[in-house]
Amino acid sequence: MKIGHTMDKSFAQFDVADGPPLVAFWGKEIPEGDMHLHQMEVDWHSHVRGQLFCVENGLLRVEARHEAVLYPLHRLGWMPPNLDHRIVISGTMRGWGMLLRPDLCACLPPEPCVMGTSTLLRALVERAAGWADPADVTPDRARLIEVMLDEIRAAPRQPLHLPMPRDPRALRIAERLVACPDRQDTLEELARWAGLSERTARRVFHAETSMHFSHWRQQMRLTLAMERLAQGQPVSDVADAVGYASPSNFIAMFRRAFGVSPARFFANRGAPA
After folding, report:
1. What is the mean pLDDT of the chain?
2. Which H, E and C letters describe 3-31, residue by residue?
């Protein structure tokens, strides 16, 4: 990935366990031509520091262990230290965030997640990104760091993860649907194809993803729909691609999940949610 010099300095801290407690980065400092990442994948990797980031343009999908986590616009993404993950970028990527020293991550979630953010946290990160020497932690800066951590801890979790079953047969079903989200096969038909009973498939999905199969399928469609919407595809095309009978049915599902229509959700680019 090609990035600007300021971002180079920030990301050089990914695998530094000591040093500055917090290193902030800000998307405005990235040269425009360097961030036209319309579709890109970063293979499996991990880093020593925890990473917190907010996407202000584009969309990230992060796969870790047996789940995928979706990071859409103006939501706060958290990736804990030393966790293997891979990244898929959709749309033109721009955002802000911070790298946290491992000892500061103990009070934060142990798994990747999506959270709401706040105007206060955004302003504090912007200020921290302007610190010439992040290692110079004055009393004033130390207080700001504590406030940032408080804001992160208080941020509400949001349902944008897609856990995958571990059972090989159930995983075949999940992967088949992710590859073709518009399939209308019943669970009975899918289970027969994968070599297990419908009852067993239903039990395994619930036990290994903490979701009933119908909820998992809706979450899968929502996850893939968000990626297409971030690329600018029309709602009617997205609804058809993920298996909804009509755009109105898809919009109703989206409203239930996020409280707003897809158009309103992706139009709110000017201010964090």
Report:
1. 83
2. CCHHHHHHHCCCCCCCCCCEEEEEHHHCC
